[in-house]
Write a structure and sequence with these properties.
It holds the Pfam family p450. This protein is mainly alpha-helical and 101 residues long. Helices cover 26% and strands 0% of the residues. It contains three helices and no strands. The N and C termini lie far apart (54 Å). The structure holds protoporphyrin IX containing FE. The site of protoporphyrin IX containing FE has 11 residues, from helix 3.
Length: 101
C-alpha cells in the first residue's frame, strides 16, 4: 500500500455480516435486547458486530449526545403517532419495559 493511502472501511456492511447476525436485514430490534442482557456494545470495545459511530481513538465524540437525541426522537414518534402493524407481529416476545424494577 502506498504512503498516505486512504483506507475506507465498509462500516454498514460490517453491521450486516450474516456470520455475525442471523438474518441481518430483518427488522428485529429485540435482537439487541438478547445480546449482552440488553447492554449491546456498539463502541467496539467488547466486540465488533456493528460500529455506527466508528471505534478507537477517532470514534465519534458526539455518540452519547446522539444516543440521547435518538431516544428523544423515538419517544416523540411513539408519543405523537398512532402505531399499527402492517403485518402480523408478535408483540409479546418480551412483555415488559427495560429498566422496570
Ligand atoms: C446519529 C448521529 C451520528 C453518527 C451515526 C455519527 C457517526 C460518526 C462516525 C462513524 C464517525 C467517524 C468515526 C471514526 O473515524 O472512527 C464520526 C466522527 C465524528 N463525529 Fe459523529 N456521528 C453522529 C453525530 C455526531 C454529533 C451530534 C456530533 C457533535 C456534537 C458528532 C461529532 C463528531 C466528530 C467531531 C467526529 C470526528 C472525530 C475524530 O475524527 O476524531 N457526531 N461520527
Amino acid at each position: 500500500m502506498p504512503n498516505n493511502a486512504t483506507v475506507n472501511f465498509m462500516v454498514a456492511e460490517i453491521g450486516w455480516d450474516p456470520e455475525v447476525w442471523e438474518d441481518p436485514i430483518a427488522f428485529e430490534p429485540e435482537r439487541f435486547l438478547e445480546i449482552g442482557g440488553g447492554e449491546f456494545d456498539f463502541t467496539g470495545i467488547k466486540e465488533i458486530r456493528m460500529i455506527p459511530f466508528g471505534g478507537g481513538r477517532r470514534m465519534c465524540p458526539g455518540y452519547t449526545l446522539d444516543m440521547l437525541h435518538l431516544e428523544y426522537f423515538m419517544a416523540n414518534l411513539v408519543w405523537n403517532f398512532k402505531w399499527e402493524t402492517a403485518w402480523e407481529v408478535d408483540l409479546w416476545k418480551k412483555p415488559e419495559f427495560q429498566g422496570q424494577s
